[in-house]
Amino acid sequence: MKELIDKLCLQGMTDSDDVKKIIDEINDEDMEYLAKKAREISQKRFGKKIYLRGLIEISSFCKNDCYYCGIRRGNGKAERYRLSKEDILECCKEGYRLGFKTFVMQGGEDSFYNDDVMADIVSEIRKRFPECAITLSLGEKSYESYKRLFDAGADRYLLRHETANEEHYKKLHPAEMSLENRKRCLYDLKEIGYQVGCGIMVGSPYQTTDDLTEDLKFMLELQPHMIGIGPFVKHKDTPFADKESGSVRKTLILLSIIRILFPRVLLPATTALGTMDPKGREKGILAGANVLMPNLSPVKVRKKYALYDNKICTGEESAQCKGCLQKRIESIGYEIVSERGDY
Ligand code: SAH
User: Fold this and answer.
1) 3-class SS of residue 12
2) What digits encode the pLDDT tens for the residues 59-104?
3) Atom of ligand 1 nearest to the CA of 106
4) What does the pLDDT read at residue 87?
């Protein structure tokens, strides 16, 4: 196993069977060896700096019906809300006060935020916080819409591809959605000039190890600037309520492999990882991650943005969340910095 890990470090992914073997057969001792390699690569680029992205969950309305997601259209029990421009600016103001230099606006695909509305919000943030990065995570749009938001001042876009395998994609999404369009979006975003993030849920229903190596191959082809991965966490009011959630262990293995294959990539230790294990985010950083995405949403809406069950950090104010994370990160010898953390 150590030879396979060394080969991965020296030559990249030359043989997907090697990577499959690592994912499926690695034991705890070799996992620590893998994590150590990944940490070294991460520290060589970023030192022990951890970048923050303040997540503002702007809407829980969604026109899509993804089987895994708690805010899918078909979930009649989901509580719906939208943040106004003023709400969003207030979140940015608080985030800025706390030292955030990146604001991520994420939401369901909500037609209320059409290009006019969104471009207006983005340009206002751009004007008021000129040195901050603006990231959007609002799903699939046309080339023209993405271009308009880029021209309004957005810098980055997060759009997980969810799985690079056609068959698997169909098992996670209804027929009106396609992997082809998801990929088209990612290439459009790159062409326009966004820093782009793709990614997957680890342990999503029906995912095989072959699917995971296909995901890695797709990432190698796309060469994203950011890669977001976290465990799949089931949600009680979705078609996947009775499926198993993904494991922290496998997520950590994937984080390390991704860090080794993509030395410069911005790699978050996600909230889903922190939800599945109280020390999940710390473990993620020790496996090679270098980004955290604390919640900046108004506390009154946080429980309503329920993508999955038992999501953490839904009761605290943003300042408390930041303080808590700061302590956690210092406890493992890392440091949260107030920098944009561009690619
Ligand atoms: N509408 C946007 C944002 C989606 S939410 C978009 O389409 O990109 C952001 C991510 O949360 C999704 O891409 C998905 O990978 C993840 N997610 C959704 N449901 C989840 C679940 N049950 N468990 C873990 N992650 C989930």
Assistant:
1) coil
2) 999 999 999 999 999 999 999 999 999 999 999 999 999 999 999 9
3) 3
4) 98
Give the Å distances, CA to CA, from 57 to 141, 163, 277: 18, 23, 22
Is 342 part of any domain?
no
In the chain, how many domains are there?
1
**Cα 283 to middle of ligand 1, angstroms:** 21
What pTM value is reported for the model? 0.98
Contact 35, 287 (CB under 8 A): yes
Please give the angle made by the CA atoms of 294, 300 and 302, to the nearest 5 degrees: 40
Q: List residues near ligand 1 (CB under 6 A).
A: 68-69, 106, 108-109, 137-139, 159-160, 162, 201, 230, 232-233, 235, 272, 307-308
- Of all protein residues, the one whose alpha carbon is nearest to atom 18 of ligand 1 is 69
Contact between 339 and 101 under an 8 Å Cβ cutoff? The reply is: yes
Is residue 31 domain-resident? yes
Give the distance (Å) from ligand 1 centre to CA of residue 339.
26
Q: Helix, strand, or coil here: 332?
A: coil
Query: CB atoms < 10 A from the CB of 227, how many?
Result: 28
Nearest CA-CA partner of 187 in 143, 148, 136:
143
**DSSP H helical segments within 79-178, as ranges?**
85-97, 115-128, 143-152, 166-172
Provide the 10 A C-beta neighbour count for residue 12: 13
Structural domain that includes position 125: 2-337
Atom of ligand 1 nearest to the CA of 200: 15
Residue type, 320: Q
Let me know if residue 164 belongs to a domain.
Answer: yes
- pLDDT digits over 180-229, tens only? 999 999 999 999 999 999 999 999 999 999 999 999 999 999 999 999 99
Is 343 a member of any domain?
A: no
Can you name the residues that pair with 104 across neighbouring β-strands?
55, 135
CATH of residue 34's domain is: 3.20.20.70
Length of the chain: 343
For the stretch 157-188, pLDDT in tens is 999 999 999 999 999 999 999 999 999 999 99
Which two structure tokens, joined as six digits, stand for 72?
């899918």
